[in-house]
Amino acid sequence: MDRSTLLSDAEYKGLEPFVVQEVAPRTDTVRYLWEKWSAPSRGRTYLAELPAEVSDHFGPRVKALALMLAQVSGVSEPQILAWSACVSRPIRSRSG
Question: How far apart are CA 24 and CA 61, in angstroms?
Fold first, then answer.
């Protein structure tokens, strides 16, 4: 504050809080290491299971955001794909 603009009888009364919220898109990449076994006698390879919540390369928050953008906000799939390319690893469309 420029104190030269205050009247001569102005008294300091402390600080007034002012809260600002911001959205900060960021990536959070988790790398899983699968335990891998091979049975040469059967010609078979075995991989350990991933956690139950992991079904593909996108976490539940990415999926929830994409659904919210599409269903609630009416954002088209091409717009969601373009946005994802700007902030992170691009999401591929179902057709591509």
Answer: 14
The candidate with the shortest Cα–Cα distance to 37, out of 29, 28, 47, is: 47
Q: What is the pLDDT of residue 15?
A: 95
CB atoms within 10 A of CB 84: 19
CA distances (Å), 31 to each of 7, 27, 38, 88, in order?
Answer: 61, 13, 22, 15
Q: Residue 86: its pLDDT value, please?
A: 78
Task: Please give the C-alpha separations between residue 78 and each of 29, 30, 63, 70, 73, in angstroms, as whole numbers.
Answer: 23, 26, 15, 10, 14
Distance CA 59, CA 6 (A): 54
What are the structural domain ranges in the chain? 56-96
